Amino acid sequence: MKKKWTLFKVIPMFLILLLVVSGCGGSKSGGSGKKVELSMAAWGNPAEIKVYQKGLDAYEKLNPDVKIKLVPVPGDNYEEKLLTELSAGKSHDIFYVGDNTMPKLVETGKIADLTEFLDSSASYVKASDFADGLWGAARKDGKIYGVSVDNNPLVMYYNKKVLADAGIDKSPQELYDAGEWNWQAFEDMTGKINAAGNKGFVADGWTAHLFSWAWSNGGQLYDDNGDFILEDNPQAQEAFKFLERNIKKGNFTYAGSLPKGQGADAMFMSNQVGFVAAGRWLTPMFSENKTLEFDYIPWPTNTGNKMEPAAIAIAYMSVAKDSKHVEEAMKFMSFYTSAEGQKARLTGNGNAVPSVNGVDELITDDAIPEHAKYLIDAREIGVVEDKQVQIPGLEQELRDIMELMYLGKQDADKTIAEVSKKAKEKIAEHRSK
After folding, report:
1. What pTM value is reported for the model?
2. What contacts 24+ positions apart, CB below 8 Å, involve 128-135?
3. Which residues of 39-67 are buried (b: 16+ CB within 10 A; e: fewer)?
4. CA 173 to CA 170: how far, in whole Å?
5. Can you list the pairs that 228-232 forms with residues at least 24 positions away whose Cβ atoms lie under 8 Å?
6. Which of 381, 340, 397 is nearest to 155 (CA)?
7. How far, in Å, CA of 344 to CA of 338, rounded?
8. Buried b / exposed e across 369-384, counting CB within 10 Å, b at 16+?
9. What is the tens place of the pLDDT at every residue in 32-60?
């Protein structure tokens, strides 16, 4: 009887020990042994989506207990969809955030504070790995709500065939090397392309382009205090008049006036456009077109300097505060934005420029296009606009006013007056809250 009693006593103890050991040996993502499933929302053309997927694949290879679904969302209603889903508590776990959307998301209180996690041993990247000037609206009151996935300094893309068909014998590169790549050269060149029956340059309503034109003339739209100073800045005003003149002459075509389904990128690839301005995001798609001959050139200047700052487009990755797997989502976010993650995505004609130190060779070693190094040069002196982005809704308000000038319905002087009035109103309204 004594032996039997001892056996019955030992068996339950053994079972308890077995359960404890089993619990400790489960998945590091929750202990259930099941895969953690995350979803990530992002905008982008098909070639860009392929680039994003490389980052997910690399993370899943390192973390086989995690499965991440990439959900492409059309860019034209991305912000609205994101804000709606967040307010309803039904958003994706991780998502791309545009710089103009970031202030709105911070105000909702629905995105996670990443500050402590980035400083922890669980993170693949540290806040100090990023250039201080890249944070913009993603860092507020010392707290970090989004991490730059990479960055995209704006450059000009030029179509070699279109230029050749227009009889242009001196390339943008030759002019740049000679210190002659300026507004006048750009106006002359786009005029010849227009005369040959193609479109010289497609002007975008996005204010990053407007900033770049102002800066390329040594102008400013905002002062250091965030006040709008266009009416007191002749160089910035001259940029408006330069745009107006070339729109009227037909050298520049407003992107919003193109026929439906004929974007600037598609027309560039079909040899109908000489110049488009963008970051590296067009490169993967252009590189897949083996008949397209293109290259980069810095933004033309009007200061006598060979190169001036152009805008740097930036997107962030944020995490939903209400995610069921918020720690795993943060961990993935840190990998995706780290040097390792950016290398996984951007190797082989990626869609952006690294925002972390130590991987610039991803750009400088690129064979397509020939002068890929200009992206690094543009990043080094470029600007992530950090004044206007703080004023919710101002970007769209100014775009609506600028569109009238781009469509030839309003002259530069009236546009300057209306842009200045609206900007000052919105800034005052924001500061009064």
Report:
1. 0.79
2. 129/338, 129/339, 129/356, 129/357, 130/355, 130/356, 131/355, 133/383, 133/384, 134/312, 134/314, 134/355, 134/384
3. bbbbbbbebbbbbbbbbbebbeeebebbe
4. 8
5. 228/420, 228/423, 228/424, 228/427, 230/416, 230/419, 230/420, 230/423, 231/416, 231/417, 231/420
6. 381
7. 10
8. bebbebbbebbeebeb
9. 468 899 999 999 888 889 989 999 999 99
Residues in the chain: 433
Dig out the tokens for 318 from the structure: 């944020």
Residue 200: both structure tokens together: 């010289």
| CA atoms in the 13 A half-sphere facing the CB of 269 | 13
β-pair partners for 300: none
Q: Which of 210, 135, 147 is nearest to 395 (CA)?
A: 210
Using a 10 angstrom Cβ sphere, with 0-12 exposed, 13-18 middle and 19 or more buried, the burial of residue 169 is: exposed
Give 342-351 pLDDT, tens digit per residue: 999 888 767 8
Tokens of 273: 């456009």
